[in-house]
Amino acid sequence: xxxxxxxxxxxxxxxxxxxxxxxxxxxxxxxxxxxxxxxxxxxxxxxxxxxxxxxxxxxxxxxxxxxxxxxxxxxxxxxxxxxxxxxxxxxxxxxxxxxxxxxxxxxxxxxxxxxxxxxxxxxxxxxxxxxxxxxxxxxxxxxxxxxxxxxxxxxxxxxxxxxxxxxxxxxxxxxxxxxxxxxxxxxxxxxxxxxxxxxxxxxxxxxxxxxxxxxxxxxxxxxxxxxxxxxxxxxxxxx
Length: 239
Ligand SMILES: [Fe+2]
Known about the structure:
Layout: E1 2-5, H1 14-21, E2 23-27, H2 32-46, E3 51-52, E4 65-71, E5 79-85, H3 96-110, E6 114-115, E7 118-121, E8 124-136, E9 141-145, E10 157-160, E11 172-177, E12 180-183, E13 193-196, E14 201-205, E15 221-231
Parallel strand pairs: 1-2, 3-4
Antiparallel strand pairs: 2-13, 4-5, 5-8, 5-9, 6-7, 7-8, 8-15, 9-14, 10-13, 10-15, 11-12, 11-14
Fe (ii) ion binds near residues 145, 147, 156 and 202.
């Protein structure tokens, strides 16, 4: 694991470094105050969004959605979490500056180029799946897993939005590097970004599992942004 500030990474080969270090954190990549105001914005917006249990396949020009995942029925990894998909072809509900900066940063460092939201790589069509993740207080979690089963090995990029010890108290994201578990929340602050190699084990331990689960008002807990590259599988819907 290696920790940087943005000014120190411009000349680094992050692609190589991720494989070596497994986890990279860049402190203060975004302004904390803007992260908090965007969180309030998205919390308001999602009150008006339908609550889906199943969202179906993603495709070019799909609308944003708000999905609650409980169990291991449709995703690869068992979880209790909420996902708000914010596709870049839609009007931004929140985090516009942050998501745009993050995509530019990742594309520059990984040598990626898109045209009209689509990346062509290994004869596949990939798109950015930009999502706000919410692990609710009262037990939100994600099983230990590795990424990269559907995206040609491009690492996911994450943004820390909430702080352990302030917004929630128990649980949080961890990495397993060489059989050693690292509670990454001890290092992360809102506005930091972090990413890991696709073969690095990680998960989210249950968030405040002893606290009451407020199903009618899922607001508290751990929030993060996750940017991943996904393959467009439904060719018919791609124009
Ligand atoms: Fe993951």
